[in-house]
Amino acid sequence: MENDSANGAFVYFGHILVFNLNFNLVLQYFFPCVYIRLVGLPAKDLSQSPNDKHLVRLASELNISQFNDFLLHLGLQTKDWEKIEYNWGRAEDAMVVALLQWKERNQNVTFQKILDAQESIADNRHHLCQVFKGQPGLLENTSFGFKDTPEDRFLSTLSRKLGNCVIQLGIELGLTFSDIEAVYVKHPKDLFSQMYEVLKIWKQKTPENTYLNLMLAIQRVRGKQFLKRNFCCNI
């Protein structure tokens, strides 16, 4: 359906009606893979340096069987990856740590280098789509107000539900990797205490320590269904 007007046109994309002046913005935010297939990533984006959140999201998209080759193309050596694997054990955590160390050791870290490494291992999946992808908002259909700050009792209960995603959730909540390493040292092999400590640090150090920002970070790491099952958050 199209409806031309003096100022532009309304067009349908799937089930969404958008004004064509903002059509590219809608594609970039909600349908990044479609946007990248149509026009490619802008040069200004490829020249930017990924932040820690970008690298956490990238790690969740990559295939562990190709990860060593991917790191070699980024400039890390096999012995570096083997040491990280030994120290961190769980593949999902080790992949995040390896990418964070790559960023820390190199001055010129860009999305272009990530894309080049991905192409070098013949991985044609659109990983950067997911890295840049925005998130849908949440409808406030819960027992708490999204603008409120979570109580410690809530964070304690939540820590027992989240599972093994301490590094991923900590980074999404804005903690530094140094913060998270200190948590592992303080609570070795105690997943509940690690997660609870991460949530308390977030609450204490972050001005935007609201239920909403916490739920959005959890949605990014654990997915929409986790929120629906545990908190009745409608997407």
The averaged pLDDT comes out at 82
Q: Tell me the name of the CATH class of the largest domain.
A: Mainly Alpha
| Sheet having the most strands | 3 strands, antiparallel
Succession of helices and strands: EEEHHHHHHHHHHHHHHH
Total of DSSP H or I helical runs spanning 4+ residues = 15
Relevant CATH superfamily of the largest domain: Death Domain, Fas
Question: What report would you give on this structure?
Answer:
With 235 residues, this protein is mainly alpha-helical. The chain has three domains: 2-30, no CATH class; 45-131, Orthogonal Bundle (Death Domain, Fas); 152-231, Death Domain, Fas. The chain has helices spanning 23-30, 32-39, 43-46, 52-61, 64-74, 78-88, 91-105, 111-120, 127-132, 152-159, 166-172, 177-186, 191-205, 211-222, 224-231; strands at 2-5, 8-13, 16-19. Strand 1 (2-5) and strand 2 form a beta hairpin. The protein is globular and about 50 Å long. Keywords: Membrane, Transmembrane, Transmembrane helix. InterPro entries: DEATH-like_dom_sf (IPR011029), Death_dom (IPR000488). Residues 168-221 form the Death domain. One of its GO terms (biological process) is signal transduction.
List keywords for this structure.
mainly alpha, 235 residues, 15 helices, Death Domain, Fas
Q: Outline of this structure?
A:
The chain has 235 residues and is mainly α. The chain has 15 helices and 3 strands.
Write the layout of secondary structure elements.
Blueprint: E1 2-5, E2 8-13, E3 16-19, H1 23-30, H2 32-39, H3 43-46, H4 52-61, H5 64-74, H6 78-88, H7 91-105, H8 111-120, H9 127-132, H10 152-159, H11 166-172, H12 177-186, H13 191-205, H14 211-222, H15 224-231
Antiparallel strand pairs: 1-2, 2-3
